Amino acid sequence: MAQGPTINTIAERAGVSIASVSRVLNGLPTRQETVRKVMAAADELGYVRNAVARSLKSRRTHQVAFAMADVGNPAYLAMLREIQPVLKAAGYRLVLHSTDAVAADEIEVLHSLGERYVDGLIMSPLRVTEAHLETLSAARAPVVIIGSVPEGTRVDNVRADSRTGVKLAIDHLYGLGRRRIGMINGPLDTVPGASRGAAYREALEELGLPYDEDLVQIGDFYRAEGGRAVAALLERVPDVDALMCANDLIALGALDVLRAAGRRVPEDVAVVGMDDTDLAAASWPSLTSVSLGSAERGKAAAELLLDRLQNGDREPRLVTVPPRLSVRASTAGEQAARTARNVPPGADAGRDAAGKGDGA
Amino acid sequence: MAQGPTINTIAERAGVSIASVSRVLNGLPTRQETVRKVMAAADELGYVRNAVARSLKSRRTHQVAFAMADVGNPAYLAMLREIQPVLKAAGYRLVLHSTDAVAADEIEVLHSLGERYVDGLIMSPLRVTEAHLETLSAARAPVVIIGSVPEGTRVDNVRADSRTGVKLAIDHLYGLGRRRIGMINGPLDTVPGASRGAAYREALEELGLPYDEDLVQIGDFYRAEGGRAVAALLERVPDVDALMCANDLIALGALDVLRAAGRRVPEDVAVVGMDDTDLAAASWPSLTSVSLGSAERGKAAAELLLDRLQNGDREPRLVTVPPRLSVRASTAGEQAARTARNVPPGADAGRDAAGKGDGA
DNA sequence: AAAAACTCTGTAAACGTTTACGGCGTTTGG
DNA sequence: CCAAACGCCGTAAACGTTTACAGAGTTTTT
User: What's the Å distance between residue A28 CA and nucleotide C21 C1'?
Assistant: First the structure.
C-alpha cells in the first residue's frame, strides 16, 4: 500500500518548510503566495492530515467513548441515538464499548482511559460498585455517568427518576377509576426492580390505597416469564383491574396472557409498561408506557461531557431527567389514546428505514 | 490534570533505558532482573501505554469503523450487535459513524480513512453511486461493503438476497392456498423497493400466477403510509387474501387497517413483513416476516475485514447471506405458528435487559 | 589464549504533526 | 539614514512510542 503524502512531501513539492505547510493547513496567518503554493501541492497529492500524529502532539483525539451494557438493549440505543449527533456536531467521533453488563469489563474501560485514545467517556454502568468508584476517581479522562452514583461522588451524573415515573402511571390508573392495581416486577435485587417496587408501594400509599402483597408478583424482565407471572396473579386475585409492569416486555407478556384468558384490555384490565420502547407502539393494543427519558439522558450526558471537555475544572453537575407517561390504548382505549396524541389512525409509527440499506 | 507517567518516567525510576522498558512491556527477551525492575516501576507508577504514540509508530490503531445510515434502524442495529463482539474479540475498538443516509456523508467517511484513525471500515451505503466507487478505489484503508456493488468492483462485499427472500414468502402464502397476493412496496427508485418489487413479480410468475398491477400499491417504508396504501388496495381489490409487505413497519400498518376494516388476520388476509425486526414478534397477531439476515451479514462483514487486515492482498470476496422465513401468527395462525417454532405460549420474547441500566 | 558467537542493553532515529524561537527582509518613524 | 517594529518563514524540539544498530560483557569455540 503506497505510503500516503505527509506535510514533508508537500513542503518539498511546494518549496517551503514543513512549518509553513502546517501553518497554512491550520489557517494561521501566512503570505498569500505561500498559501497558494501549499494548497496546490496538497491538492495535487491528495493530502489528508494524519489524525494520529496530530493527536499525539495536541493531546486531543477528538474521540469520545460510550460504554453501554448491551448493544441490543433499546434503552441504551435510545441514548446512543441522541449521543451520536451531539458529538458529531461538536467534531467528535464515537467509540462504542459493549460491556455485556460485566462489572470487570466496565472497570477495564475506565482503566483504559489511561491509553488516551479518547478525550472522555460516557458510561452507563449496570450498578456502581466500590471498585467502580475507585477506578473512577483515578480516571485519566473526564467521565459522565448515566445512572445513580453515591452521594458525594465527584463526577458528572445524569439520572432518571423511576420513582416519579411509577407514580405517574399509578396516578393515571387511579384517575381512570382503577382500584385493584397489581404490579408485575423483576427481581428485587436488581436496581430497577427494587426502586420500582418501592415506588409502587409509595404511590399507592399516597393515594390512600392499601398495599396488598397479593397484588405483587415477581418474575424476571422478559416476556415469557412476565406472562407467567400475570397468569399467577390472575389466579390469585381475579378482580385485579390494572397491571403496572416493570418494563415493556413484561407488559407484552401480560397482553398475551390476558388475551388468552378472555379479559379485555383496557376494559377489564388496564396495562402499563415501562421504558416506552418501540415495542410499546407496535403492540396491539398499543401499550401505555412510562418513559424514563433514555433519549434525554443520552443527550444530557453528551452535553455535560462536551462542556467538561471545554471547561475542565468546573464543579461536577447532576442532571435528573423527568419521566413522562405515553398514554396509549392499553389504558385509555384506542379512541382516547388517539385523541390524546392527536394523530390519525395508523399514524403511530416511529421512524424506520429498515430495509433501505440492504443489498438486494 | 497531572501528566501521566511515560516510559521515560519508568526508565528513570528503574534505572534503565527507555528501550529496555519498551522491550519488557512488549515481552521481548530481557534479563529477569531488568524485567523485575521495570515491572515494579510500572506498577508503582500506575503506568498505562499511550495508544496514540503507539499507533503513530506502529501504523496500527486497533480501531475499525462501522458506518451505518441511521443508528435507530433495527436492521443496522442487528449488524452492529454482531460486529461488535467479533471486533472486540480480535482486539479492535469500534468507531461508529451515522451518515443519516446522506451520500455526501458516506463519501466523507471513506475519504476520512486517509486520516488513518482506523485500520479499516465496514460500510453499508444506502446506494452506491459513481462517486462512492471512485472514493472507494482510492481509499487508504481496507473497506468491506454491506450491500450490492457493481460487478467487478474490487472490494470485499456482503449481500443479502431479497429476491429469494420474497420468493420464500410468496411460496409460503401460495402453500397456504392464497391466490390473490397483494404487494405493498416502498418507492421503486430505492434499491430495496426496486428489487423487492421485481422479486414479487418473478415469484408469481414461477408459480404460474398472473401479475396483476391492481394488486400492487406503492407508499413509503413507514407504518402510517403503509396503512394508507393497504386501505387503497382493499378498496380496489376487495378479494385480496394475502399481503406481502416490503418491511415490517408497512406490515404493522397493514394490521392496523385490516383490523379497522374488520378483516381477520390470517383467516381473511394473511400478512407477511420483511426484515424480521423485534417488532414482528411484538405485534399482535405476531408477524410472519422474511429475515434478510442482517445479523449474519454484520458478522460476515466483520470477519471479512479482520481477515483482510491480516492478509492484505488476497482477492476480494463476495459473501451472500441466505434469507430465512420466520413464520408467525399473521399467516399460519397462532396455533400453527407455535407448533412450527415449538415453543410454549407467551415465550416469544427476544432478549431485553431494558431497564437494567437505568438510574433509579 | 585469542577469536567468534551470543546476550543484554543503551543510543538514536523514526512515525507525522504542532509550535517556540530566532533570523531575515521590508516597512515605519524619528 | 539608522533604529525600531513588523511580517514571514525556517530550524528544531517535542509529543510517547518502537526498533535498528552497535557496544559491552560474557560464554563458547578452536
Answer: 17
CB pairs under 8 A between A and B: 330
C-beta atoms of B95 and A98 within 8 A:
no
| Cβ contact A79 with chain C strand, < 7 A | no
- Are B299 and B282 in the same domain? no
The CATH number for B137's domain is 3.40.50.2300
B292-309 pLDDT, tens digit per residue, is: 999 999 999 999 999 999
> Per CA to C1' distance, which residue is closest to C16?
A53
- Whether residue A222 sits in one domain with residue A138: no
Closest CA–CA distance from residue A81 to any residue of chain B (Å):
6
Between CA A289 and CA A209 the distance in angstroms is 22
| B284 contacts chain A (CB < 8 A) | yes
**Helical residues (DSSP H) of chain B, grouped into ranges:** 7-14, 18-25, 32-45, 51-58, 74-89, 103-112, 130-137, 162-175, 191-206, 223-236, 248-260, 278-282, 294-310, 329-341
In a domain, B281, yes or no: yes
Same domain? For A177 and A255 the reply is yes
Cβ contact, residue pair B75, A354, below 8 Å = yes
pLDDT tens string B118-177: 999 999 987 888 999 999 999 999 999 999 899 889 999 999 999 999 999 999 999 999
What is the tens place of the pLDDT at every residue in A43-56?
A: 999 999 999 999 99
Regions in chain A scoring below 50 on pLDDT: 1, 340-360
Provide the total of helices (H) and of strands (E) in chain A, helices listed first: 14, 12
Q: Which domain holds residue A151?
A: 63-161+295-311
- The sign of the CA dihedral B354, A322, A129, A105 is positive
Which residue type is seen at A350? G
The answer on A98 and A44 residing in a single domain is no
Handedness of CA B327, B332, B338, B341 (dihedral sign): negative
